[in-house]
From TrEMBL, chain A:
Keywords: Cell membrane, Membrane, Transmembrane, Transmembrane helix, Transport. GO terms for biological process: L-valine transmembrane transport. It comes from the Bacteria. Belongs to the AzlC family. It is a multi-pass membrane protein. The chain crosses the membrane at residues 28-48, 145-172, 178-196, 201-218, 224-242. Pfam families: AzlC. One of its GO terms (cellular component) is plasma membrane. Its main location: membrane. This is Putative branched-chain amino acid permease (Azaleucine resistance). It is found in: Cell membrane. PANTHER family: INNER MEMBRANE PROTEIN YGAZ.
UniProtKB/TrEMBL annotation, chain B:
InterPro entries: Brnchd-chn_aa_trnsp_AzlD. The chain crosses the membrane at residues 12-33, 45-64, 94-115. Keywords: Membrane, Transmembrane, Transmembrane helix. It comes from Phormidesmis priestleyi Ana. Pfam families: AzlD. This is Putative membrane protein.
């Protein structure tokens, strides 16, 4: 990922708008690689499900939410009613609400013309790189340009992969059965590991993993939300009683008030 | 459905409805953000969100197949995932993690197919 270059040169790295934009586009590249097979398989499956090529392209262009697109295509194949598909999409994408809540303190001062596109482009991947940039210690006022750069790069590539899946996907027999979607899993693993630097974070992640298995039978991927909340609670609960979160990353400092 | 008009309409309802549902979820908090102040404790708790959500997505993908736990070397996804964890720990390089993890998964899957 970003290899956290900000950690080495914190205060004096004041990048301009375009530098932030391109840094975001560059840092999201590995995540684009991980999403590529997912997009291609989506295009292939969508056509196989009976969805028209134009509806498939419009879905990627207007919805832009991989996992819900996959689920929707599966439901189209079984002739599920449109309203059920839309409601399922709503529930499956609820995690984006949690992402948005985390970003609120960083984007609240931005004008509407920024909030609308940044919300539209809010994917797992864009969130992952944006939140890292926002949490970095340097205080440049242009971090939303970094978010936008990464988000647009992700968006354009998602469209290309969908188109590839629609066209070239038909030429590869059983593309979906090779398990290439596993690229998404390894990408996410590579995004989680760098977080595991404190005890509460490890507890949070392990808890989320265990609960995700137990809660998996819940409908509409609701197990995901349950597991995430359980993980957060476990992490908060494990925190030391006097948390100096900013400082304790480097060294532990105890204040006795 | 044989009526082409009805088919197009259904597709418009599906794609349009999904687009509105997804954008609503993503925009709700952003739109209200200038009017709300989140409690510091909630914001501090949300630091756990990114790794926790990603874990909750990955773990069932890797360990479950048709709802049952697959904890053996016959599970190529598990082999790929363990490889990815090790490569990520050692290299701290995301792209390398993805490539080697995928290679391990595909290689192991191929090996299992050959053996059987």
């Amino acid at each position: 990922m970003s290899q956290t270059p900000t950690r080495k040169e914190p205060e004096n790295r004041l990048m301009g708008r375009s530098a932030e934009f391109w840094a975001g586009a560059r840092d999201i590249f590995p995540l684009i690689v991980g999403a590529a097979p997912f997009g291609i398989i989506f295009g292939t499956l969508a056509i196989g499900s009976g969805l028209s090529a134009s509806a498939t392209l419009f879905m990627s262009a207007l919805v832009f939410a991989g996992s819900s697109q996959f689920i929707a295509v599966g439901m189209v194949a079984t002739h599920t009613g449109w309203l059920v598909i839309v409601l399922t999409t709503f529930v499956v994408n609820l995690r984006h609400l949690l992402y948005a809540v985390s970003l609120v303190p960083y984007i609240q001062a931005l004008p509407q013309r920024w909030k609308v596109p940044l919300a539209f482009f809010l994917t797992d991947e864009a969130f992952a790189i944006a939140i890292r940039r926002y949490e970095a210690s340097d205080c440049t006022p242009f971090k939303h340009w970094y978010y936008l750069g990464g988000a647009i790069a992700m968006y354009l590539n998602w469209q290309v992969f969908t188109l590839l899946g629609i066209t070239a996907g038909a030429l590869i027999p059983n593309a979906a059965e090779w398990g290439l979607d596993f690229a998404m899993s390894v990408t996410f693993i590579g995004m989680v590991i760098p977080y595991l630097k404190s005890r509460p974070m490890v507890v949070a992640v392990v808890t989320a993993g265990l609960v995700s298995i137990v809660a998996n039978p819940l409908p509409h991927k609701l197990g995901l939300i349950v597991a995430a909340i359980a993980g957060i609670i476990a992490g908060v609960y494990t925190e030391p009683p006097l948390p100096n979160q900013r400082i304790s990353q480097q060294r532990s400092v105890f204040h006795h008030d | 459905m044989t009526n082409p008009f009805a088919e197009v309409l259904t597709e418009i309802l599906i794609v349009g409805g999904m687009a509105i549902a997804t954008f609503t979820i993503r925009y709700l908090m952003f739109g209200a953000s200038s009017r709300i102040t989140l409690p510091p404790r909630l914001l501090s708790a949300l630091r756990y969100l990114p790794p926790v959500v990603l874990t909750a997505i990955v773990v069932p993908e890797v360990l479950l197949s048709d709802g049952t736990l697959q904890l053996s070397y016959l599970n190529a996804r598990l082999v790929g995932a363990i490889t990815a964890v090790i490569v990520c720990k050692l290299s701290q390089n995301l792209l390398l993690t993805i490539l080697v993890g995928m290679a391990a998964f595909l290689g192991w899957q191929g090996l299992l197919t050959v053996v059987n």
